[in-house]
Amino acid sequence: MTLLPLHNDDLGYETNCFVCEQRNERGLQIPFFHDTDRDLVTAEFALTKDFSGAPTMVHGGVALAVLDEAMAWACIALGRRWAVTSETTTRFDRAIYVDKPHNVEAEVTEQTDSEIRTVGRIVDLKGRVRAESTATFTILGEAELKRAVGADAADELDPSLELD
User: Fold this and answer.
1) Strands of 57-151, DSSP E
2) pTM value?
3) pLDDT tens for residues 125-156?
4) Beta-carbon contacts of residue 101 (< 8 Å; ≥ 6 apart)
5) I want to staple 41 with a disulfide (CB 3.0 to 4.6 A). Which of 58, 73, 83, 164 is the partner?
């Protein structure tokens, strides 16, 4: 299995992402990877009680943030495009417990010139799906990208993402 680390710094801009930024002391600091063998984005994580809803369970909104981040990285690493979430649906099959290891994985299911559709799953170590999301991402054009990350940063972004 080949896992390539995914870092915002490698893409040419700084961020304070709540989910993935390692320097965000108040964030989740989850490192994401591109699994080139399975062609998906993956991460391992265990969240503390600081991120609970019910006393022993991860807050649903926090779980949604993890899923959304995995699917956003799928747009970048697999879809090779910059995109933002436009619609998402999530089903919670089982509780996601604090202080327990979980995996999140995401993949691109369909891509057009304007949208990327993804699916993401949080699974436990036994491979049981805890939560599953589907999402549609709207691909950003050059002007939108400059507004999102700043004109200077947008000029420095990796051109292999084939920005339009």
Assistant:
1) 83-92, 102-111, 115-124, 129-139
2) 0.88
3) 999 999 999 999 999 876 565 555 555 555 55
4) 44, 45, 46, 124, 125
5) 73
Cα 49–chain centre separation:
21
Give the domain 3-158 fold: Thiol Ester Dehydrase; Chain A (3.10.129)
Contact (Cβ atoms closer than 8 angstroms) between residue 136 and residue 154: no
Q: State the number of CA atoms in the 13 A half-sphere of 77 facing the CB.
A: 27
Question: Residues in the chain, how many?
Answer: 164
Tell me how far apart the alpha carbons of residues 95 and 92 are, in angstroms, rounded to a whole number. Answer: 7
Tokens representing residue 164 in the block: 């339009």
Q: Which amino acid is at 43?
A: A
Looking up tokens 């709207």 gives 138
> What would the pLDDT profile of 31-81 be if each residue is shown by its tens digit?
999 999 999 999 999 999 999 998 899 999 999 999 999 999 999 999 999
The DSSP element (H or E) to which 36 belongs, if any, is: none
C-alpha dihedral, 24 to 91 to 48 to 86, nearest 10° = 10
Handedness of CA 121, 60, 64, 118 (dihedral sign): positive
